[in-house]
Structure formats: C-alpha cells, structure tokens
Model the fold of this input.
Amino acid sequence: MKRKIFLLLLVCSFSTYSQKFHGLALTPPMGWSTWNTFRGNINEQLIREAADAMVSSGMKDAGYRYINLDDYWQGGRDSMGFIFADRAKFSSGMKALTDYVHSRGLKIGIYSDPGAMTCTGVLGSRGHEYQDALMYAKWGFDLLKYDWCNTDSLNAYWAYSTMRDALYAAGRPMIFYLCEWGNNSPWNWGKDIGHMWRISGDIAPCFDCEINHMTYSDWGVMKIVYFREGIRTFSGPDHWNDFDMLEVGNGMTIGEDRAHFSMWCMLASPLTAGNDIRNMNAETKSILTNREVIAIDQDSLGIQGFRYDVKDSIETWVKPLTQGDWAICFLNRSMNTKEIEFNWSKNIVKDDFAKRELNPEKDTYKIRNLWTKKNIGKTNSTLKAELDGHDVLMLRLIK
Ligand code: GLA
Done:
C-alpha cells in the first residue's frame, strides 16, 4: 500500500512539471526577430530601438508583441555554470533590457540550442537546461526559441521535453518555440511540448529560389509554402506550424512581399517580422500592418488554409474563418500577368478537417478585397480580375 502511494505521488509530481504553459498562443504569435537582417550583429541598443519602432510604426497597434533576440547574445558561464550575456553587447544587463521592452507594452524573447553550441558556435544549453531556464525567467523573458544545431545523436522529443520541463519548473510563463526545421516531424509530438515549431530550413529573401550551401539550403518563400504537404491538421490554437520569420522588406518586389505576407496569413503561421523595422519604407510598413490581412492570420478558429485549385500558374487558396466567413487568396506563381475568372457557384469548397463548407449556391457572400480595402461585389456573379506576376488577390467572403 505504502509503495503504491509513493509511486502515485512520484507520478503526480513528475506530471506537475511535465507540461508546457498552456494558453499563451491561442492565435499565432506576432513579433520581430533580429536574425534575418542582423544575424549575430546585435546589441542592447538595437533591441531598444526595435521596441521603440514597433510602437511608433503602428506594428504594436496592429498586434505585434514579441521582440526576439536570436543567436549570438551569449557571453559565457560563471563558476557555478550560470549563463551570462556578452557584456560588451549588453552592458546594462538582460534584466534592464527586458524591463525596457516591457515598459513599451511589449514582450521579449531569447534564443538557445539543445547542443553544447548554437548554430553560430556560441554556448548552447546542453547539460545546463534547468540553469538556463532559471536565468531566462529571472531576467524576465517571455519566449524561448530553441534551435537544433550540434545536437549529434540527441533525441529531439526528449531534448525539447527537457527544456519544456525546465521552463515550467522555472515558473515564468514563456512561449516555447521549437526550431528543429521539421527534421523529426515535430507536428506529431510537439503539441504538448511547445507553442509553435518550424517546418523547414531557413528562409531567404527571394520568391522561389534555393540557396544551396552544400550541406543545407536556404529557401525562397514559395519553397517554404510547399515544403511539407499534409500537415495542416496538426496546427491550431497554442500549437502552430511556423513557416519561419518574414522576409517582407528585405529585397523582394512589393507584389512578392504582399504575396509572401498573404500566404503566411493564409497558413495561420506565426508572423515574425525579419526586416529593420527602425528604417522601413511606407510600402513595407503598410504590408506588415494591414489589419484586415492580419485578421485572417489571427482568426480565432485557428485553421491553416489549403490549396483548393491550380490552373495555369494561378493557385486558389482557401481558409475557413469564424462566423462562416472565408479567406480566398489567388496566387500568381508565374512572372506574367494572368486573367482570373472564377465562377463562385461552380466552386463548392468542403473542408472536412474544419467541418466547414463554402457554398455560394446556398449563401451569397459579400466580397472584400483585403489589399485595396474595397468591397467588390458578391458571390452571385463571376469574379473577373487581372493579376500581376508573383502577386496575390486576397479576398474575404463575408457571410
Ligand atoms: C538556425 C535557425 C535560424 C537562426 C539561426 C541562428 O539556422 O533555423 O532561424 O535561429 O540558426 O544561428
């Protein structure tokens, strides 16, 4: 009897610490990260300026919250094994930095790796997971991105579970962002461990390219859209497929940036800007802060959209929304202008996963163009439009 009670207590105490912080990402997290533009060239001044820019640019009002430090903030470990930040880059200390970001009404994220070293070769968390989690909590961070470099024969499930447990034991609610590129199919096991997981290798600021580095590649935005087929059913509130940080404002054309942003919203991906938000032009800002497009991403139903049709390089993507609305995105994959002719009543869309049907024969929907922000008629007549190459026509059908 005594033994049974002991075992029961042991199981209970283990499961108390074996959980993630639930409910922190009921819609896809929105923020900004240092990596795409600044790589390892980061310091406290940049982070403070980015927090200021997130507020002054209107991004905060549009829903962005997280200012994320990526790789290369690490300094070393003290004699007890506790990590400290690079003292030259973060001379005021991490607590002062998180206080500053919080004072702007924002949240702040940090980065590590389950290996002994991160991808840039600075200190990872191996063997120090609980100490590192304690430190992030003490400093006041709100999100941890946990990468997958130098992990040798580590088991991904256990490596990420260990850090999840360490974060939970440290006691400060933090979004846990799994970044193992989809190598170990985290959509199969990540739901109880983290709030979002990368599904691909790193993004590059080009529409459809692959940048081959011999042992790995970086991927153009469209390549990432098609990287993993068939995983939409694994994404949802508090456990998102992440299509990587955005490259909006990093060199593609306006149409390509618009297509990239629209697709991330259709896919219900977390939206992490990756440009220099301190110095962005009006067009970049208007893409990143288009609230009607963001509303598609942030829809509380939390359903990842899917490709319904492909004809002559025009893809039709659909996403069911709350209250019977739908988002429809026509994507021109080619470089040439194309004509679209879409007869709504001949296109009855069924989403068995979301248990939703778009049936314009039964219901007439109002149509709103989300980029021009104009109402453009109803679904009782055929839609005709011209679409530039590498661009989108993104619509909301309102019931
Ligand atoms: C990996 C990740 C990137 C970034 C770098 C940092 O490549 O996938 O998103 O965090 O590491 O070194």
User: Anything to note?
Assistant: The chain has a mean pLDDT of 96.
